[in-house]
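Q: What does the predicted 3D structure of Sigma 54-interacting transcriptional regulator look like?
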Amino acid sequence: METLKGLNAWDVLNNINDGVVIVDSGGKTLWVNTAWDRITGLNRLDVLGKRMADVVGEGFYDRSVTEAVLQSRSITTIPQSSKTGKSLVSTGIPVFTGEDPREIQYIVICMRDITELKDAEHRLKLASEQNEQFLRQLEEFRKQSAPGHIVAESKAMRDVLELAGRIARVDSTVLITGESGVGKGLLARYIHDCSPGRRGGPFVPINCGAIPAPLLESELFGYETGAFTGAKRGGKAGLYETAHQGTLFLDEIGEFPLELQPKLLHVLQDGAVTRVGGTAAHRYDVRIVAATNRDLEALVAAGRFRADLYYRLAVVPIQIPGLRRRQEDIIPLAAFYLDRYNRRYGLRRQLTAPLLDRMTAYPWPGNVRELSNAIERMVVTAETDFLTAGQFDFKLHAGDDAAPAASVPNPGDERPLRVRLAEVEAEIIARAIRDHGTQAKAAQALGISLSTLIRRQRHGRPV
Ligand SMILES: Nc1ncnc2c1ncn2[C@@H]1O[C@H](COP(=O)(O)OP(=O)(O)OP(=O)(O)O)[C@@H](O)[C@H]1O
């Protein structure tokens, strides 16, 4: 304490960082330290000798901590703002007379400038609001580019979705028609997902065109022990049974074998299935969605599809128009798939206006599947981040030229005919896979089995 000898208490109070004001028991300002001017942005002379209530009345502060202490007779802290725009926090400490511990002798007020803190708080709030907004957008974006999202900007496609959403709530059989790659499978799934009573149940797709008739019957309806050679002991549930309380999606229903059609019709009418080799019929709760890219009415007229089955399936027909008939969807789809492939390959490709013009004018015979493939191809093969119209033209020409280039024999080619034919075959297969999206679909389009396609594709590779 020796070293503090001679230290002036007022000097100390003048040199601290907080504003200090001393007022008397009547609320009149007795003393103000020098830091107060800086902290409040005001001038001490404007308040010295004045009652704090008057200082507030003159608008120097929005409220008085002195008044609060005089009322509460205890230490009080309040937020204040000064007319200079400072945000302050003030603590008033009552000092009582020695004789009467309830009688205030004077009040010491400490003030701290929290303008910067307030600003920081405000900025933080803004930043966290922006962050939340950004996260919401990202979430929206993530949901949109997630598999299963349906891009539908055109009125035609919005009408399709609206109808699908409406009929999802009832159990009527739906027949979705449209060219290959328009999104029939996607829409079938959408109907299932929109169906409140079924979305928790199974969605069971079956490609009726990809399975030979005898196998299709047991796949679809199941079989009992000993139904045929090689049948499993204990039998096997069919897909119809598996779809109980869910949706059975009969894809490529136009290919459904004529000889099995009466059984399917019977099941659809009754909701009851008898396994192959079995006798007892069991009832299941299954919603049927069928799809085809064939003209079923023409198949009916040609005697290749039963009229009664057609009418049973087409209770609610939904036609998805080809992409060239809903051009407004082309750019949103391009952006949607660009985002998907950019993420998948960790790239930052961008679409350019001339490319989008070219894509909008293109007729898209393979519909959305072709568009998705085209974007993926451009994304992975581009040399810069800008996808150009030239790349799209190149893709078209590569597609157009592929078959002729391979099928017209090169005059200088001396290799055996077998080798050259295998090469042409492989090119045709590669092109069919590009156009149809999968090996199975390509095999079907070319009228060969999947295993033949795979074998011939392999043989055609240059050795
Ligand atoms: N509107 C759309 N938005 C986003 N993706 C779509 C849309 N339509 C189709 N697709 C996508 O295009 C591809 C082909 O769609 P889908 O398999 O459903 O067509 P499809 O009509 O059933 O074809 P196919 O008759 O050849 O079986 C799928 O990858 C699907 O996710």
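A (community wiki): The structure tokens above were generated from the sequence. The chain has three domains: 2-113, 155-321, 326-459. The pocket of adenosine-5'-triphosphate is lined by residues 150-152, 178, 180-186, 251, 291, 293, 333, 336, 368-369, 372, 441 (CB under 6 Å).
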